[in-house]
Specification:
The chain is an alpha+beta fold. It is elongated, with a radius of gyration of 33 Å. The strands form four sheets. The chain has a seven-stranded mixed sheet, sandwiched between helices. Strands 2-1-3-9-4-7 form a six-stranded antiparallel sheet, with no helix packed on it. A six-stranded antiparallel sheet has the order 12-17-16-15-14-13. It binds adenosine-5'-diphosphate and magnesium ion (MG). Magnesium ion (MG) binds next to helix 11.
């Protein structure tokens, strides 16, 4: 274990103090130091100051800022009080142990911070760029769009780019948590933050560093620990009113019984024990540390959570609403049948693919893919392409208006079409108002979908519901195969929001929306918690969601819920444990059943155990 400079200094001060305390006690025991206050007080003060000095400074600084009551202040009055009633060794011991706890805390926080940084070891230091025929090494933010980036095997990709030459496998593990490498070849997009495993790659840079995936993710991870969970805010508020209350309680405990019984020494002592015991450090540190660990653990699994509040909300998931295409299903459609009204299949496919050129909807990608593999017809030039969210696309080809999309689109435009009778997603094509034909495509359910829905139900999610813009029969088949608790089909993006509103009215916890970021940003924004999957390479999804699953494996969803519940459990354990022990010792102190040594042990012990417990979240 490596300590930082300031931690080493603290350790040194603790050892010095402890040594001096032992020395003074020994001298006193063998009778060299006489038992008179004007000798003992200065001797113990010498042992006290190395550990107390920082605390005195901090307390003074806080008082200057008007924040009187914090744990430094508590410790200070407790120890000064002990000096006043001539409990010298106790005074030194309390401060000594308080510092041991603080040192431990600082090591724990440092450790979890470092491990998050290590988990996200994706920041590129330099980029190798070809300029004027020569290779130069630049800092990533000096590279411009259009530059040629050269990535040797073993190097990290510094900026997002398109492969110009070469082919290779990319290690995406530090981004997605997934061990399986991705293969890329000419024309594919290579995402920054990945490591080039095998071949030499030449990339054309398509985004400046600030907008590259790697920069976006780092920004997200770095800002996420600033967003506090409700539990953390509650603890801060709690400490705010709790500490003054404790001080008042201690004062009352010192004065009232003393006035009645006349035993000032005894009740002052009790009040001091009360002060030591009631220090809230165990809670103040362990709750944020647990969430911090939970966030770190999630990012190691390729799950980016934009704040502790979202992790907390996920643990209370009651209803999970899924988008269908690309979320529950793979979104890579196979063309089942092409039915042109007249002419050949290749032409119909070419018209459709041409109109879909600019769309990144899974259907568009599939039609383009089908065209490139099964049509020999040249791709016509399309202009004025317009995406009609939830319906399809409109484009102008050779001066004629082409519509490609759902039956709903045909109805909206008043076009008579021949409905596709079979199950699947039907795409209709029309040219200048005349129906050209239909393309039946079918999608497959993702491999972990069934399992994920079962896990959700098993861990207390009441409803798993699907909202889709696709046809009723395609939706029904998926809902039945996955045993969903409900579905609604043929919805436009605005209808999805409306359905969501209805579900929001009837829920006992968090309403989670899970989508792939295509056509579902409004729903994602309206839900209590938006989760985007397959976000690697999709900026829109990274922006809109509260939780980002880096790849599109549904298993990550159950992992995320798992981590959130585990973190919540640890936070609850710590709260119950810390408050329980405190209440017990407060009780002991009032009835004079404990002493300052035991109280100090209890206080620091609780903090140390709570911190150790909190750090388990990081390891999961
Ligand atoms: P989902 O809710 O399943 O993700 P969308 O809301 O994205 O579906 O789309 C709903 C329907 O609109 C699709 O099933 C399809 O029929 C049609 N559609 C949307 N975008 C396109 C497109 N680019 N090309 C063809 N059809 C589309
Ligand atoms: Mg979709």
């Amino acid at each position: 274990m490596k300590l930082t400079k300031s931690q080493k200094r603290t350790l040194g001060r603790i050892l010095l103090s402890a040594g001096l305390l032992i020395l003074v006690s020994l001298l006193r025991w063998i009778g060299i130091l006489p038992d008179v206050w004007y000798i003992l007080l200065p001797c113990h003060l010498v042992a006290y100051l190395p550990v107390a000095w920082q605390v005195i400074l901090k307390a003074a600084r806080n008082v200057a800022h008007g924040q009187i009551f914090d744990e430094n202040f508590l410790m200070l009055i407790a120890t000064v009080g002990a000096f006043v009633i001539a409990e010298y060794p106790e005074a030194v011991f309390v401060m000594l142990f308080y510092q041991v706890g603080e040192l431990f805390e600082s090591i724990a926080v440092g450790k979890s911070r470092r491990s998050i940084a290590a988990l996200m070891d994706i920041r590129p230091d330099e980029a190798r760029v070809e300029r004027n025929g020569e290779e130069v090494i630049l800092s990533p933010d000096e590279v411009q769009i259009g530059d040629t980036l050269i990535v040797r095997p073993g190097e990290k990709i510094a900026l997002d780019g398109i492969v110009l030459a070469g082919s290779s496998n990319l290690d995406t593990r530090s981004l997605t948590g997934e061990a399986l490498p991705r293969s890329v070849g000419v024309g594919d997009e290579a995402i920054s933050g990945c490591i080039n495993i095998s071949g030499l790659l030449r990339l054309r840079v398509i985004k400046p560093y600030g907008e590259s995936t790697v920069a976006k993710i780092l920004e997200l991870v770095e800002s996420s620990s600033l967003v506090k969970s409700k539990a953390e805010n509650a603890v801060t508020k709690f400490a705010h009113w709790y500490t003054p209350l404790v001080v008042i309680g201690a004062l009352l405990l010192a004065i009232i019984p003393s006035l009645i019984t006349g035993e000032w020494q005894r009740w002052l002592h009790t009040a001091l024990i009360f002060l030591v015991v009631s220090c809230p450090c165990a809670l103040v540190i362990s709750v944020p540390l647990s969430y911090f660990g939970g966030l770190g653990c999630a990012s190691r699994h390729g799950i980016l959570v934009k704040g502790a509040n979202h992790l907390e909300a996920l643990a209370n998931a009651d209803t999970v609403v899924f988008d269908k295409t690309g979320t529950l299903t793979r979104g890579s459609f196979e063309v089942v049948r092409i039915t042109p009204v007249s002419g050949d299949e290749g032409t119909l496919l070419a018209v459709a693919a041409s109109a879909e050129q600019a769309s990144n909807h899974p259907i568009a990608e599939s039609l383009k893919h089908a065209y490139s593999t099964r049509s020999a017809h040249p791709l016509p030039q399309a202009d004025g392409i317009e995406e009609l969210a939830g319906y399809g696309v409109r484009a102008v080809i050779d001066g004629s208006t082409v519509l490609v999309g759902s039956a709903k689109l045909m109805e909206r435009e008043g076009i008579s079409y021949i409905a596709e009778p079979d199950v699947g997603t039907a795409i209709y094509v029309c040219l200048n108002g005349a129906f050209l034909g239909s393309i039946l495509i079918s999608d497959r359910i993702k491999k972990n979908a069934r399992e994920t829905i079962d896990v959700l139900h098993a861990c207390g999610v009441r409803r798993a519901v699907m909202l889709t813009g696709d046809r009723e029969d395609a939706a029904r088949a998926v809902a039945r195969d996955l045993s969903l608790d409900g579905y609604a089909a043929e919805l436009l993006p605005a209808d999805k929001v409306e359905r969501l509103e209805a579900l929001l009215k009837d829920k006992n916890g968090t309403l989670v929306f899970v989508g792939d970021g295509v056509n579902d940003a409004p729903a994602m924004a309206r839900a209590d918690l938006g989760i985007a999957m397959g976000a690697l390479g999709s900026d829109a999804a990274i922006e809109a969601a509260d939780i980002v699953l880096m790849d599109d494996d549904l298993k990550k969803l159950s992992t995320a819920i798992d981590i959130s519940r585990y973190t919540r459990r640890i936070v609850h354990q710590n709260i119950v444990f810390a408050i329980g022990i405190k209440v017990l010792f407060l009780f002991f102190s009032i009835f004079n059943m404990t002493n300052m040594w035991a109280a100090t042990f209890a206080d620091v012990g609780v903090a140390v155990l709570a911190i150790l417990n909190a750090m388990r979240t990081l390891k999961k």
